[in-house]
Amino acid sequence: MKLYCLSGHPTLPCNVLKFKSTTIMLDCGLDTTSVLNFLPLPLVHSPRLSKLPSWVSKDGTINLEKELKECAGRVFVDSQPEFCLPERELLDLSTIDVILISNYHCMMALPYITEHTGFTGTVYATEPTLQIGRLLMEELVKFMERVPKAQSATCWKNKEIQRMLPGPLKDAVDVWTWKRSYSMQEVNSALSKVQLVGYSQKVELFGAVQVSPLSSGYSLGSSNWIIQSHHEKVAYVSGSSLLTTHPQPMDQSSLKNSDVLILTGLTQMPTANPDGMLGEFCSNLAMTIRAGGNVLVPCYSSGVIYDLLECLYQFIESANLGTTPFYFISPVANSSLEFSQIFAEWLCHNKQSKVYLPEPPFPHAELIQTNKLKHYPSIHGDFSSEFRQPCVVFTGHPSLRFGDVVHFMELWGKSGLNTIIFTEPDFSYLDALAPYQPLAMKCVYCPIDTRLNFHQVSKLLKEVQPLHVVCPEQYTQPPLTQSHRSDLMLELQPPPMPYRRCSVLNLPFRRRYERVYILPELANSLVPSEIKPGVSMATVSAVLHSKDNKHTLQSVPKPPPVPPSKKRKRVMEEPPVVLAPKPLLSGAVPLEAFLATLQKHGITEVKVEETADGHILHLQAEDTLIQLEEDGTHIVCDNNEPLRTTLRDLVLRFLQKL
Amino acid sequence: MDRECASLLPSVCEVLADSGRSVPDDTSLEKLLDWFTELTEAGGSLLEACPCLLKFISTVVHNTASDPGVLSFTLRLTGLMAATEDGFKMLQEQSVLNQVFNLQHWQEAGLWDDPCLRIGWIQGLRSTLQHPKALRFFVQSDFIDSLLQLQTDTSLFVASAANQMLAHILLFFQKVLSAGSNGVSKTEEEDERRIHHSVTDLEPPAVTMETSAEYSAVVKGISEYLKESLIPKEKTKLHQSLQILKLLALLLAQAGPPLRDKLLQTVTDSLEQLVTAGCSRLTLPLMDVILAANRGHHDTVHTARAVRILLLPLDIITGPTLLGTNATADEHPFSVVEQLKSKTSCISMICVCLTNTPQITLTLPGVLPCPPVLIVTAVVSLLRICSGTSSSSSTVCSEVCRNVIGSGKVQKCALEALTALNSSPGVKEKISEVFTILIQYLDNPDSDPTVLHKSYQALVKWIRACTDLSLITDQLRQDLVEVVRKRACDMRWEVRDSTVEFLGHLAGVHVSVSSGEEVCDASEALLGGCCTTPLLREALQDTESYVRASAISALAKTLTHSWRQGAALTQDQTEIVSRLLEILSQDTEGFPRRAVVQYFISWFFSRSSHSPPSSSTSSTSLLMECVRTVLSQGSADLDWEVKVHTLELAELLLDQAFSAHRGYRKGSDAHRALQHPYGVVSDQAYALHTHTGTHTEGVQSDLAHVVEQGVISALLSGLVDCDRPVALKACRLLITLRETICPLSLGALDATAATATVSCELLGRGWGQEITKILGMEKSDRAREADVSAQRSSGAADGGGDSVTVSVCEVLRSLGLDERLDVLTQSSDHIHNSPLSLLQDILTASGAHTHPDTKPGQEVIVDCY
């Protein structure tokens, strides 16, 4: 069993598992942090961004006038933002049989994998994952297509040139794998390969293994996966959460007794407790509004925003913010808010029960009804006429490089009254803000990451007790910035197997058994004999038939009647004569009883000699030796066949036959 | 004992002694015993007062079918009676004593298995052991072994009682002997009298040589036992060791030198052995013993050692700074580090250490291994480690630090320690560092409400201790403003409440600004003055009533200074006042309304104590207008505490009006004691203030003024209030007023004549009607008819009847205030709590139980409450 690791990002994994002749891709996350190296795409013409100076190296030798711009003391690539794709050279992607998706954040690279690679397999995901994933992809494509940039920058990627560049650009890795966004057509084609599954539904793959999604508690429809054969079990744990938020709670017990547990998607903010962050979010929001400022929340259009809105729903009354408008701006805002209300079976118990009442599961419906929350596809159109300040705006993209958020940054950045509150943990907020410096706006970083933290995961692992754990190497040491926090890493016995981008791991795991079926008529012909109470044995002669990873024992075909022929051309063509096999013997010969039996049969002069393996009986009168050993009995008797036969029969009396 | 009780007691004894009758519940017996104890303590002899008890005891003791509860009661009663030498002698003569405490008797009767009986035996003996005769009895009966056995009894209560008893024997007779050995000879008579009078009096009775020998034997027996049994025979059987450690802690905390030395001498080896055994379950009790041994033990060598041991966990975690780098290997015992690696023991050890640090810094400087300032530094570093922001410089292990990261318990303990360390010598220079860590805690999103609260407390305490705040940088001040602003918007009301409270406390602290010349309040110095009032005004709108209440109190504290100076009101302050009156009339919760009344009390108080009442600035006239509103609305409030506070305001007005008059007693001292513990109480000290006005216009005009302000109405309405504390307070104030304006003494007749002309109005409804009724003023037929018709008509709401105008003096004299006061001062359950009622209850209950017609299930259950 092998694991190919195509992504180095611990929360946006992409691994391929080869297990029992199947090739299974586990998630295909898209690392979007690469976009931080690009200039923001303004929705409205920005004089500031359009007049940036080109970057020229100090000695003037490198001049990529078109590609690199200097902004706020840093160098950015001026082109359509590009994403860091999973590794595509490590193995032939067309050999992948299935892709298992664990949540909508971990499928954003799907079109890059399923399109133009010869992929012919199936993608398995739950319905909310598919629908919300589609929304996120659609949003991404729209963000890009709204601000078309013809130019694609490639010169800077030249190794020689990149080496000379300043700052983060110089250190960017795998820049040649960076690709521009896909098109809507590619998204549709990729998503057409998705087959929907429900929690605990078992899907057979070629008869060899069975895969089944389990609720992981992280987001709507998010799942962990169990991949098992009859005798082996692999658990794939991706973004999971034990907190009580909107999704169905995590199914932990089904992860028990795995041989290997692949652990990804732990919290990216191990020191930031979500509850504390939520409190921080609310108090900063209230503080800003009270002082007459606006609040900008760059966020994804699905996920934590549901919890934020729910929390605000309760908070705005107590903080006397009743009249402040909340705006949610995204090309998919409407669908996201509505989708969340219809996936009742995927929600936590509390919300599920609301489905039977005349009220929607999420309170944001009420916020919309009462006009406290308004949503728009973009800042153009209706929004501009209804926009009222001070207000709170939720909009994407959290990288601050594209989407409507760019406009609000330009609009509000210059006033110290306003606040930007980062809630998504995927991007470093300082890097995200880099092209907007200097900034008067107040910045608050309260990343809300509900995924498992190290404390929770160690408890979980103690409970489910996998034999081996595989995880990204980042989890096996304390975070770089907090090297003293030895509590922020996985410590297990045996130690977890770490992987990084491009690792190929041989999983320490031997297949010891295989299930074989036996046909009824064959089973019928068996003659079991009990070798000890409750255990019977029988010998089988049969033909082993293997097809589609299923093994069956069938009766030996009767030899066809020998065709009458006068000449036997070749002896070899004759079917082998099937002899009735000799019975198998088992048991041991008890010395005392055996001696007594010999005496009964007139053999009285027996000299017993003890050896390392048993006994040697010397029948002096008959000049015969009987060697009784643990796994064999020899009768050494020259020229006295009747005696030998008698002795043999006496020995056999004590043994059981099969 | 009154006659009635004495006559009932024999029948009660009969009921209790009759095993065929069902027994009253435990609480009745407890109450009965309490009553007997009271009687004894009052100096009466039980045996003389109720001879029936002796018969009762012997009857019960001989009847093995008695209920264990009654038996236990009897044992304890016997002990009580034998507590005096007289009683003891008599019981012994009747050979009751031997019978009652005879262990064998109880064991043979199979009653010893009942823990109830065992505890009765222990407690009875304990009460007896108040004089040498009892000690002799104890020693001669060979009770010591049985008692030691009971120390590890299966019942926790029995075991604990045995422990207490052992401690009692050693400690009580230790005092007796040490006093006796002073050689002061006392006449027998004197002793007789003293013992006769009080059993709890700790003055030692006569001591003889035998007593001393017996005591030594007991001490020897017990300490040998302690020594032997301290080390657990098996690792798993720690119960006995735990009990002994508890006993040792108890003894060492109170024992005087000879006993203490003897004990320490005997058990030190075993203690050391126990320490090296490294049983983590015994760590805490062991530490208690060490602490107790150290207490009051001023020998510097031992104290220094104890201090080092106590500081060891902190030293290990924060890096070797406290005990010096030369802390030898034997001070870093492997076992301590090992114990710190386990999370539970780590947290409890570090908490014990932290709790003791403030006290440690106050011990003699020679004893401390380091200056107190280093301890502050260590606590600050621990707080940093706890919040996960810094690593330890300790090389020992990160494993230990991991146990305290994020531990709320350690954070709270460390914050408490830091708070208390503010007054340690030479630590003021650390204020900036302390500020930094506290602000960091206040800012930390993961700090729970209690941690935030304690951080605020620590800040206030440190500011109070360091009156010179020039060490606080502008950056720190700015950070503090930011964090306070943020916390004022917190989701959790507890946090908002602490924040608002903090602002109030800060305003109450006076600090010198930079040069040390100018003094201002700390909120202005640290927060710049522009932050406090807007935040508090905002908090008046809070959804949580506690926060609103705290905001009101904090506003009062913030404004006290300007009130004192008689500054003119700002627009802001006027708006606050109208908002407060709105709260008083509209808020649905009691807390904010109480706080509003308190607000006006402190305003009135601070103003009146500093400016003459005649000064009619705009501020004064607004205040007086408000006071009138508060008096009328507050006395009509539904919440009794609001009403009591309103009466306090009325009292202040009375104080102001009459304190210069002859015969006026100020009630301010009394009213502090009356305040309810849960009420919102401002910290404002009610210092005595001097009245500057002279006795010019006489009582008459003052009284007229008071009536006009609505004080009399408030008092009268309070008097007929259904809440007892309100009525009581009003009644006391009315009596004071009566004594002042219309005293019955002859010399004051002149004044009475003049004041008699001042009158007030009683409305024909509500409290006015009640007062009218008390006064017995007959209504004319016509008025009654009008009354009836008014009730019939739907518009009865605003006018129930005619109002009457009466003379204030007349009212005060005719209300029967003194009789009312008598009734009101008695607690509402005084009738049901009397011994008589108790005895009657027991009799009634037994009667009901034995009544032949009573069917099962219809039993009357005695409700003693």
UniProtKB/TrEMBL annotation, chain A:
Main subcellular localisation: cytoplasm
InterPro entries found in the cross-reference section: Beta_Casp (IPR022712), Integrator_9su (IPR027074), IntS9-like_C (IPR048660), Metallo-B-lactamas (IPR001279), RibonucZ/Hydroxyglut_hydro (IPR036866)
Keyword list, A-Z: Cytoplasm, Nucleus
GO biological process: negative regulation of transmembrane receptor protein serine/threonine kinase signaling pathway; regulation of cellular response to growth factor stimulus; RNA polymerase II transcription initiation surveillance; snRNA 3'-end processing
Compartmental location: Cytoplasm; Nucleus
Domain of life: Eukaryota
Residues covered by the Beta-Casp domain: 305-433
Cellular component, GO, one term: cytosol
Family assignment from sequence similarity: Belongs to the metallo-beta-lactamase superfamily. RNA-metabolizing metallo-beta-lactamase-like family. INTS9 subfamily.
Name under which the protein is recorded: Integrator complex subunit 9
Automatic annotation (TrEMBL), chain B:
Superkingdom in the source lineage: Eukaryota
InterPro entries documented for this protein: ARM-like, ARM-type_fold, BRAT1
Subcellular location: Cytoplasm
Keywords: Cytoplasm
Family of the protein in this entry: Belongs to the BRAT1 family.
GO CC aspect terms: cytoplasm; nucleus
Keyword Cytoplasm belongs to the record: yes
GO BP of this protein: cell population proliferation; DNA damage response
Protein name in the entry: BRCA1-associated ATM activator 1
